[in-house]
Amino acid sequence: MAGKVWEQGDQLGGWFRKKSINFVNKCLFFNRKTSGDTLELVEESLDINLLNNTVRLKFQNCIVLPGGVHVSEIQNHVIILILTNQTVHRLLLPHPSRMYRSELVIESQMQSVFTDIGKVDFRDPCNSQLIPAVPGLSSNSTTSAAWLSNDGEALFALPSASGGIFVLKLPPYDIPGTVSVVELKQSSVMQRLLIGWMPTAIRGDQGLSDRPFALAVHCVEHDAFIFALCQDHKLRMWSYKDQMCLMAADMLEYVPTFKDLRLTAGTGHKLRLAYSPSMGLYIGVYMHAPKQGQFCIFQLVSTENNRYSLDHISSLFTSQETLIDFAITSTDIWAMWHDAENQTVVKYINYEHNAAGQWNSVFMHSLPEEEIILRDDQDPREMYLQNLFTPGRFIKAALCKALQIFCRGTERNLDLSWSDLKKEVTLAVESELQGSVTEYEFSQEEFRNLQQEFWCKFYACCLQYQEALSHPLALHLNPHTNMVCLLKKGYLSFLVPSSLVDHLYLLPDENLLAEDEAAISDDVDVARDVMCLIKCLRLIGESITVDMSAVMEMSCYNLQSPEKAAEQILEDLITIDVPQTIVELFFQEVARKHIISHLFSQPKAPLSQTGLNWPEMITAEAYPPSHPGAQKFTFLICSLTSCLCKFANMQESLRT
Fold this sequence. Notes:
Blueprint (H helix, E strand, L loop, with lengths): L2 E6 L2 E6 L11 E8 L2 E8 L8 E5 L5 E10 L3 E8 L2 E8 L1 H4 L28 E3 L14 E4 L5 E6 L5 E6 L9 E5 L2 H7 L6 H4 L8 E8 L4 E7 L3 E6 L4 E7 L8 H4 L7 E7 L3 E8 L5 E11 L3 E12 L3 E7 L3 E7 L5 E7 L9 E2 L18 H9 L7 H11 L11 H19 L7 H26 L2 E6 L6 E5 L3 E3 L5 H7 L2 H5 L10 H20 L2 H12 L4 H15 L5 H18 L14 H9 L10 H23 L1
Antiparallel strand pairs: 1-2, 3-4, 4-5, 6-7, 7-8, 8-9, 10-11, 11-12, 12-13, 14-15, 15-16, 16-17, 18-19, 19-20, 20-21, 22-23, 23-24, 24-25, 26-27, 27-28
């Protein structure tokens, strides 16, 4: 699977290839960043490192419009359509499958599709045109859309001040021609049916404007349906082929209390589409209200005489304050908000089979630790480098930006491999350290403190950039696989499903208490036992100290057995734990050993010969990703749950 991902100011979007047979480009995507008149495109692969994979385009005296970048692929080319407030552009790039036809290509030879972009003539009139001056066509539109027709025409949609849609067309890339403009008017419905809608200026009323503020396009065989969410809270659909408005639906009919919304323009609403080959087209509308937002999901239904209507599937309410972005599939809604503390919250929900309206939380990857605690026997440089370059902790861009600041503008080549970047960071910090030394004699402790001070300063700088680049800006969903990506300011994160135990363990306390036991197991007793297990695991987690965590982390980092580290942690926990009741003392000294022996159906075997001990069971749960032994996780959970339940029953019997 390959694709493209892009960012436009604070708005992001994406594109994925339907399939990729060539082994070289099976996991490609593109990242795009825009700032004012600048568009940056980056091609990346999940399998290999690509050369010459970044290009920055600057459109002088122009601004790339929201929604104005679209990517399509044809047999021999990848085509990128770009719409600015004054121009339209079409970039023809070689298709990745045409670049590498041999499976003997080595990674060092992997060139990006942008390698020869310098040869592209951006002033070629076949692929670049000025937007003609047309009455009603605004140069500062807040929305737009672009698509490629089956005939190879590049099409761009912009809202009309009269409530219609302007469509700009470039002929196919191999046919000379100029850009043409057609306006899709609402009055075309009236001409066909003698009833319908006219632009506000013609009606002469003082109601809300029917100007579109959100556009989306769905391509069919030889046509394109253009959906527009308008300021008067209506969703309209045009056929580009027939140049007709085929449908208009009032979204306020699906809002329980809409009197206040009727008087205000719906500029805070959002529109999304999702297509399923088997189920058809789904339309998601977010209705923004001051106190409570609402998601409405519809399915497009074709009626007679080339007319269309909406089948209302679901309405879901949310009290989250600021919706940043959302995406839909044929079954789910994925949404991203900023809460009252300006923290990013991502949740999802199945809109067809969730009568309770309960959203599922997405557990976000946390930032690295703000402070690194060093023991007296640890070298500051070694420990800070280990934390900075542990895979998945810091991105390369954050380290490079911090290095630039730390070196105070010194010219350095920052297009480096990870190993070379590590050498550059070490050299920079050590140089700053040596440059600050004014005395020739230091005690070992004084030098160590000074060394820690400089490494701490550089680490804080890295942490600051990591936090800035980790700020989520939008969601992107692969329509072919339903894989969800979180688009951040500096990189892309993939959301992966979590296991049931991970999900329960990471839930906030209030959500854990409200968790539906039926979703855990059909057996009520098993569900309650699992909940009991999760609570016990949380208690264990609360008892783990920083030093204990460091022991496990170092053991995994050095590829040592995590079971040994867990056994040491358990011994430390038992040492510092003082039994408060006779039951706890009995369990610690006697019952635990007999229960474990019984689990293996070896009641007469010596405890030293049993196949599993308590530390191993705790380790398998606390650190499941760290060792292949996690495959036995299901059995261990059942075993540990049985122990805990027996122990709980013993306590209850003694109390009564």
